[in-house]
Amino acid sequence: MQEKYVLILGAGLMQKPSLEAAKSLGYKTLVVDANPHAICVPYADRFEPIDLKDKEALAKLALSLGSSLEGVFTAGTDFSASVSYVAEKCSLPAHSYQAALNASDKVLMRTCFKEAGVPSPNFTQISRTEIASFIASEKFEEIKFPCVVKPVDNMGARGCRMIRNPQEFLPSVEEAVRASRTGRAILEEYMKGDEYSIDAIVCDGTLTITGFADRHIFYEPYFIEAGHTMPTRADEGKKSELIACFANAVCALGLTHGVAKADIKYTDKGPMIGEVAARLSGGYMSGWTYPYASSINLTKQALLLALGKQPEDLLQHRRPVAVHGAKLGIYEVPCQQVSAERAWISIPGTVEKIYGKENALAVPFVQNVFYRSTEGSSVNFPRNNVEKCGNAISRAPTYELAVNASESCVSSLVLRLKVPSTETETFLSGKTEKSESGFPPSFFVLDGEIIKELTHWLQTAPRIEADSLLSDQLPPALASVSVSVRDCNHRTISETLSLYDRLCPQHPSLSAKKFWLSLLRGGIQGVLYETDLEIYNAKMRSSRRLRRK
Q1: Which of 118, 150, 451, 505 has the fewest Cβ atoms nearer than 10 Å?
Q2: What is the pTM of this model?
Q3: How far apart are CA 544 and CA 549, in angstroms?
Q4: Would you list the DSSP string of 14-42?
Q5: SS3 150
């Protein structure tokens, strides 16, 4: 009997559900990726090291399989156009190649939206060779700040940021074109409003919503997703408007058979599309949080569609939704549970040790903990969504329980950094680049009056005694916010001090000024670093004295 294959583009973690779905349906997996060491390579029945943007090489490989190839698929990569190109060459089900291009190139995308009257930001394109002439032109004078720059053809928020003033323009655009495979950036008006992610399956003139999540975006001037929560808390009226806008965007791009995902905002003008892609979401949404919330294996249902089969589980559980103004029949598979994903982040440096891994999965309702950074990893405060240190995912009966579970899991993990480190000390000093004023932010952001009171207190504060409990030495200025303000990893000041006492029951005498300012700037990592640096410097001084003797 002839073996049947599915060609899967990408071998990263986001593709693991695709491999599992293919195998559960009885198919062999032929996986391609430019990286032969990608995490899912060992799970493939066959692997070929091919760059995912090399559509001709992909098509040649696919055609070589003949009738053994039943479908081509990707999830969580930015190469849906390659999927559709191969599918067209092999006469396999998929969105048309032109539609997939429309959903991959942000200039084509915005042009389609504008022509179809789909609400989206005003835009202009700037190529690598046009930056200088653009700055010298009248167009530059017409820019309204803040605005947003993005690579035309990348994902994960790489090279994407807000431009807040003319001084930030040049370095921001240069970074965006560096992150573009074709050396092009798109400059857009800034959309202010709540942001959502929507996944859907498109077929037979219908759009079935398969995930509607609240996105939690922080750290201006960048757009870092600290997590998402599903289902959304948006009211039904707002949700209906957002779905109608998404459906009309799908039609404008020409997407007809496959999957689609939207990043969309609800602004003071109503819904506006950030982007629509012809693929399932990355960021754990399609492969983890939606299946947890709905009990539907979305990847498996999408793969069935790519194989020319009916997604029976999806069709059985979907329900019609009355949405005014949509150009497609709208359905939704409702969620019975809530799933929340939260990321943890680090101050800059190199990881020496990770605490809390042994208990992270023991947090009630937590389903998965994924570690992007390990001991020895170089870490930074993220400027895009691939620079986060890891992710915790929960499933619970209520929104509050799911969110608390993921955030509690994140707060239980600590990355202790190596000393000495120029990167860490630069961060703790508060120095920032001119083009990134205010970034990276402090872990604890406090009112100016509180900072002023703390600064005054620190002028006469005695040194912290060796081996003393820090949770007993809270400065008066921080008393009113010690249990209310949380840092980037969901810890309060009081929780941070208790955690320090557990990790450092024995510590040297410390400068009060350095300790408390490092706590506000870098949380638990900041005070652990100052402690370890004090120990390191003492050893260096002792070593020098011994050498002199």
Answers
A1: 505
A2: 0.95
A3: 9
A4: GGHHHHHHHHHTT-EEEEE-S-TT-TTGG
A5: strand
